[in-house]
């Protein structure tokens, strides 16, 4: 099964992708996670991407397209994947179409997570992530049992540098000017579904599963 998640930063793409990964047994491909891993390991891609990410800008298309092209050929992508954070530009969407053609597969669903500005700001300002297993918490809505510590693996929780207020503002402008155009790019397709992302993750997931059942996928 092949799924694309669209939506502004903070709409809940990462949380939902993890739920889809678990239920349907497909890989969660988050370009943000891949980039952050490259930045931490100080790889060539990581060093190139760091400046863009810290300023809330998009990493250039050629870097991103090469990255995804390579990643989808890995063994764990053989039965499908859910894309979180890619595509983010029309150029990336066009390249993705070629990638899908090359793999000889079609997109089962494009899920557009639609959240209000208030929801987005509230989610991003409270988001904290586990340094070890990358589970996402929220200081108010999904707090860990012990402050600053992951319930699952005990590792430290941190706030992403780009979740700080001034960078969030820039990321939202980039979303509005570049990524939002993808909605009209994909909405002409049968497989396009709008999800109310102001709801809690569990409720959103129920809505997603209902839509996937319509395309004959029930996990
Ligand atoms: P995310 O974790 O998806 O919010 O991504 C974090 C940051 O990584 C973004 O603000 C961009 O700087 C960069 N990034 C992730 N995915 C892409 C993409 N598809 N195209 C360009 N930049 C990206």
Structural descriptors:
alpha/beta; five-stranded parallel sheet; 219 residues; 16% strand; binds adenosine monophosphate; 47% helix
What percentage of the residues does DSSP assign to strands (E)?
A: 15-25%
Distance between the termini: 10 Å
Sheet with the most strands: spatial strand order:
2-3-1-4-8
Low-pLDDT sequence parts: none
Q: Give the number of DSSP strands.
A: 8
Q: Tell me about the largest β-sheet.
A: 5 strands, parallel
CATH topology, which one? Rossmann fold
| CATH fourth-tier homologous superfamily | P-loop containing nucleotide triphosphate hydrolases
Bound molecules: adenosine monophosphate
Total of DSSP H or I helical runs spanning 4+ residues: 9
CATH class: Alpha Beta
Number of domains: 1
Q: What value does the average pLDDT take?
A: 94
Architecture (CATH level 2) name: 3-Layer(aba) Sandwich
Task: Explain this structure.
The protein is α/β, with parallel strands linked by helices and 219 residues long. The protein has a single domain, classed as P-loop containing nucleotide triphosphate hydrolases (Rossmann fold), CATH 3.40.50. The chain is built from 9 helices and 8 strands. The strands form 2 sheets. It has a 5-stranded parallel β-sheet. The protein has a 3-stranded antiparallel β-sheet with strand order 6-5-7. A hairpin with a 5-residue loop joins strand 5 and strand 6. The chain is globular and about 45 Å long. The model has no long low-confidence stretch (mean pLDDT 94). Bound molecules: adenosine monophosphate. Adenosine monophosphate binds next to helix 2 and helix 3.
